[in-house]
Model the fold of this input.
Amino acid sequence: MLIANVQVIGRSGLVDVRCAQGVIAQVGSSLARVTGEQVIDGAGAALLPGLHDHHIHLFALAALHNSVQCGPPAVSSRAQLAAALREDRGSGWLRGVGYHESVAGSLGRRELDELVAHRPLKIQHRSGKLWMVNSLAAQLLALDGHAQQTGVELDEAGKPNGRLYRLDGWMRAQLAQSAPASMPSLARLSRLLASYGVTGLTDTTPDNDAVTLREFERAASSGELLQRLRVMGGDALPASAGEQVQSAERKVMLDDNRLPGWDELCTVIRGAHGKGRAVAVHCVTPAELVLTLSALRDVGVHPGDRIEHASLVPQELLPLLRETGVRVVTQPGFIHERGDQYLDAIAPPEHDDLYRGRTFLTQRIPLAGSTDAPYGNPDPWAAMRAAVHRRSRAAQTIGAQEVLTPEEALALFTSAGDDPGGASRAIAVGQPADLCLLSYRWEQARLRLCAEDVSATLRQGEFIYRKQQPVLSGEQHAAPP
Ligand SMILES: [Zn+2]
Done:
């Protein structure tokens, strides 16, 4: 296939890009056509490396399509929550997501029974770490028989109150005994991500194991999953190095209200490194970051070690972060999506510490971008816009000194999956033909950073997305709306 007349950032003039056997075989101006070869006219638009979302949770995102939104902005009061739950007239499990205490305070089984009593209900907190279930759901989970299970919260009488912390894996196992759990299909979701220009993903779900890995491999071989996928997980995740699906870093969850002991964390990190595996440590608060960086400094850093989120990084932690040499995988989209709530909940002196951008680049801390969907919007272009504008939904600016240029924002999503924050993948001979073709020149597209400007996406030289409307040719190139 020949992608003709495209603009490649960093090269002058238009070029043709030839793909063969899944890789870029030739890049040059006015390449001779080969008989029988498919030719796509880029009409002067920009050709980018396919985007890689460095932190996403695919099965949870796919399940979200069948879930009730239980938090802001869609739902912001108890009455709205009740109405939203009533709207789902299905039977069987009712699944809610995105809950936040600003809606109706702290919820347990008693409060949920008042909202829905006739079918099992589970609602996930926006943080992703807490599920709240009603009595019918508690029964199906045999919750009362597991009061001793770590993460099961108890009421004053010592009875499980329906609040379950970090027990996704346990809940799945409990339910598998009554009805075999079936994973949601990734087909629709994967096509949606392809329409954003996404050719690679890193699934960072901490309890990914042999079962989920097999399910990802099945989705890849059946054509349901169109992207390359790196799968993080716990100790139970087997090694796998397939062409499309590979197992990746050891994910380490930290939780500010029950941080692991020093020895425990060092043992986990040492264990992963001992198997040649890097770690990806969830660090949202400064306390989590200090603990992690100190442990890494003590144990020693593996080349791929990464910090997930780094949501709040005080100035005084920057030297330690830089010196440790770990990568940061950030979610600039949260500045837009959650910015107003952050401004309310976080003390003003810390506002500048939120999801830093420019500071990390200036300090030469490798920085990669991601959406953390379903906890964030899965559209990486929305995340890029937030990195550039740093504005909340209510148009409040957060950390004006942290703004990135459109090129820097794009680069967050163009480093290789196994080199987050490294150099952008080049459009050069021998590179995998994982590409994202826009409808406009970069000079125009950079002002919009808009998913609608993606006109085609290719992985290994094959289309995984093509926009319906034809690409305009030559000089009739319209200015973007
Ligand atoms: Zn996450």
